[in-house]
Write a structure and sequence with these properties.
Chain lengths: 354, 356
């Protein structure tokens, strides 16, 4: 018996369905308004060059006294955590009673080419934390680092343990040399000095392309073939477009910070192995004394789970917890499962340590 | 398949293909020549180009429409190829024949012949668009700026460098060699992508063979397509995580950077001779600005609080002195009419205070 048994009627039904969906899509696509993201009310409370610290406003006043600062990666805009009304980590954390702040790193231009990791971590991040400590009258804040922002948060917590009350890391790479880490594998032979000296700031378009090539056929073909199925559904199409807008609306990377991140983290694996220095400050994960909650995604193609799991044995804190989320790198913020599971887990964990 | 059932298949196919095109026509999409006869061999994906044109280029969705169109065309071409194959062979065809049909489905008429039998390579090229640009596109854009050099540079390769223009010629020869090296590294990279496509087909065939067991048959084009995606991604992941790929990828990127760097050097030479600001001069300024910014922040952080405290203390002292001066000014004036009696005490007190 052959492996494929496609009945003619069924096959043509597929073709006709495709044609009907595309026809409907012609109407739907033309009726859409421009999509936006970042839905929860917020106010800028502190600015430092292109960096802005936002405070989010929930429907009720926060019940937690210690502010929660979200430190996102440099490689995308941070609004994945507040994509839309029914897909918002921020909104759900506010609903739980958290007082949520977020660092928006802004869009670096040529004048920011020489920003280093020292500027980002010992500079911008530290000043944002100090601003919150002062404005809330607390010695230490709760820090939630995401992806590369999680690596920054680990560095920060190791350098300034007295300023971090609780640390939450999400989809954060710690061991950059796990065998399934494709990005790390690709940059191992890269002459980063030549790369940065030549390009200056690293174009966001190039970064996006590299991410797509991690799973080229799924992310650039199957996804759009699948999109045809929802072309007649305005709401789902808007959701799709919102995600697309976020994916391709990325900042360029400041050249010097990129150089050090690739050299020390991706090539040298110094966050785990030791020897990492941010400016004049040495980073030793054993210095992290605050409780740590490490959340990673089991189907993460950007930060493999093993890369995150390594934190367990590396961190100094005796109070370490981890959650393996059933989903991917983006699904951990936007899936309906994430809305149900992630914010309450973070809140409950923090509440027990408030 | 018996001749009767094959004829039934053909009749149904043509009738339904006609419905497919009738549906498009109702949307204002005009089938290309030959479609009126609902030819099973006619390119079904051609309609998608017209579908895309319905949107124009000025709307926010245009990039999305381009992506949908590119990928739906591949899918429809695949669908047509599978159905044509089915028409010819019915359900008796084995995994090898279906794999061949799938392979042919990706070779869309009009596409770059270099991408035939290489759906992954075609995918990489389609990937570039608004918000995503790969090394190939990056070099193409850069090549427009450096293009005028290219022919002249390549013509100097192998020529002995001598005379007044010796250094100039040596630089260009170095650039020419870098260009040749970049092309070689790109070819090595493209060869691995092609290999990945081929291994994707092999994996697909092997996955398909597993479906020959009764009850495991694939019954829709989408299921076939999804199985191929699984196979192709697995093949790609294996190659992309290999030591060979790591070396080839690094060499390709490094080679492109060397070309860019050398062309930047040439442009720098020329702009300097024209008295225009150069890239390195601008970078020097940018570096200084960042150092100043950093120094300013450090001063604020390290000395800022002490300095602010000192300024506040001085301000308080100045304010106290002002108050005392004001008091000194007003008290004698009030005391003036009583001068003979209150003179000593009234005048002495402020004087003492101001000395303090």
């Amino acid at each position: 018996m052959g492996p494929i048994r496609i009945e003619p009627q069924k096959a043509l039904d597929e073709a006709l369905k495709l044609q009907q969906k595309l026809s409907a899509g012609a109407q739907t696509l033309r009726s859409l308004d421009p999509v936006t993201f970042g839905v929860t009310a917020k106010e800028a409370v502190y600015k430092d060059d292109k960096v802005t610290l936002y405070r989010f406003r929930g429907e009720r006043a926060p019940t937690q006294k210690t502010p929660l600062l979200i430190c996102y990666a440099l490689v995308n805009t941070p609004y994945m955590v507040d994509l839309q009304d029914d897909r918002s980590l921020v909104k759900n954390l506010l609903a739980q009673g958290q007082d949520v702040y977020l660092i928006d790193w802004g869009y670096p231009d040529g004048s920011d080419k020489y920003l280093t990791l020292d500027d980002y971590i010992n500079g911008y991040l530290r000043r944002c934390v100090d601003f919150l400590r002062k404005s809330h009258g607390v010695e230490a804040i709760n820090l939630l680092g995401i992806c590369q922002g999680g690596a920054f948060s680990l560095c920060f917590s190791a350098i300034y343990p007295e300023k971090v009350k609780n640390l939450v890391t999400m989809v954060t790479p710690v061991d950059f040399h796990t065998p399934d880490n494709m990005l790390s594998h690709w940059v191992r032979e890269l002459d980063v000095d030549l790369f940065v000296d030549t390009l200056g700031n690293i174009p966001a378009d190039l970064m996006n392309y590299c991410y797509l090539t991690l799973k080229p056929l799924r992310l650039n073909q199957q996804k759009y073939v699948g999109l045809v199925d929802i072309l007649d559904n305005k709401t789902e199409l808007e959701n799709f477009l919102r995600m697309e807008k976020w994916i391709f609306d990325s900042p360029d990377q400041a050249g010097e910070a990129f150089r050090q991140f690739i050299k020390d983290f991706y090539q040298g694996n110094k966050l785990l192995k030791g020897g990492l220095q941010i400016g004049e400050k040495k980073v030793d994960l054993k210095n992290i004394s605050s409780p740590v909650l490490n959340i990673f995604a089991e189907q993460d193609h950007l930060v493999p789970p093993a890369a995150s799991r390594a934190l367990k044995d590396a961190v100094g804190s005796p109070d370490y917890s981890q959650i393996a989320f059933k989903g991917g790198h983006i699904g951990i913020y936007v899936s309906s499962r994430a809305q149900r599971e992630v914010p309450p887990a973070i809140h409950d964990w923090l509440a027990k340590r408030s | 398949m018996s001749s009767n059932s094959a004829q039934d298949w053909m009749n149904q196919w043509q009738a339904l293909a006609q419905r497919y095109w009738d549906g498009w026509k109702s949307q204002g999409v005009v089938p290309p020549a030959g479609f009126g006869r609902a030819d099973a061999n006619a390119p079904w994906q051609a309609a998608l180009d017209q579908w895309a044109q319905l949107f124009g280029k000025s709307q926010q969705q245009s990039d999305l429409v381009d992506r949908v169109t590119a990928n739906a065309k591949s899918y429809v071409a695949l669908m047509q190829s599978m159905l044509n194959s089915s028409l010819g062979q019915g359900g008796d065809a084995g995994a090898a024949a279906w794999t061949e049909a799938l392979r042919n489905g990706f070779n869309i008429p009009g596409m770059d012949p270099a991408l035939w039998n290489n759906p992954l390579g075609a995918n990489f090229r389609d990937m570039a668009g608004q918000g995503a640009k790969g090394f190939e596109q990056l070099m193409a854009e850069f090549g427009r700026a450096g293009g005028p050099f290219k022919q002249e540079i390549l013509s100097t390769l192998g020529m002995p460098a001598f005379g007044l223009a010796r250094e100039h010629q040596e630089r260009w020869q170095a650039l020419g060699a870098a260009l040749v090296d970049y092309q070689e590294q790109t070819n090595r990279y493209n060869a691995l992508i092609l290999k990945s496509s081929q291994q994707g087909f092999e994996r697909f065939q092997s996955k398909l063979a597993e479906r020959e067991e009764p009850g495991r048959q694939l019954e829709s084009v989408r299921a076939v397509y999804d199985l191929w995606i699984d196979a192709a991604e697995e093949a790609y992941a294996e190659i992309a995580l290999s030591d060979e790929f790591r070396k080839v990828y690094g060499a390709m990127v490094n080679a492109q950077m060397r070309v860019r760097s050398l062309i930047q050097g040439e442009i720098e030479q020329q702009t300097r001779q024209l008295g225009m600001p150069t890239r390195s001069e601008l970078q020097g300024v940018q570096k200084s600005v960042q150092e100043l910014r950093r120094t300013f922040r450090n001063n604020q952080d390290n000395g800022g609080s002490e300095l602010a405290g000192e300024i506040a203390a001085l301000r308080a002292e100045v304010a106290a002195l002002k108050r005392q001066l004001a008091a000194a000014d007003t008290q004698p004036a009030k005391a003036a009419p009583e001068k003979p009696a209150a003179d000593k005490s009234a005048a002495a007190a402020p004087a003492k205070k101001t000395k303090r």
